[in-house]
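Researcher: Go.
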Amino acid sequence: QVQLVESGGGLVQTGGSLRLSCAASGLTFSYYSMGWFRQAPGKEREFVAAISRSGGSTRYGSTHYADSVKGRFTISRDNAKNTVHLQMNSLKPEDTAVYYCAAGRSVSVSANTYDYWGQGTQVTVSS
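Model: Structure:
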C-alpha cells in the first residue's frame, strides 16, 4: 500500500514562512520524482514545484518551479528518510490553498502524469 502523508500546513501572515513535509511509504522512494501541487476553491490543481529522483536542491538537483513561486519556494528531498520538503518563504494571500505531494515516474508539471497522491495539507496566508 502506497501512502504519502503531508504535514506542516497552517495559518501564517503575509511575508511569513512555512515548511511542508511529505513522508512516503510502500514504494521505492529513490526511484520516483516528487512534486508539489496546490488547489484553491473553485480552481484546478496547480503545479508548484518538482524534483527528480536524483535531485536534492535548487542548486544541485533537477528542480522545477512555477513562475508564481520561483525565488520564494524551495523543494528538496531526503532519500534516507523517504521524505520530500517544500520550504515556502515570503508567503502571499494568493498562496492560500490545499497543498498536495505526488510521486511519479518523471518530473512533470502535469498532475495527470503522477501515480500517487497525498491527502493534502491546508495552507492559509492572512493579510
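Model: The two ends are 40 Å apart (CA to CA).
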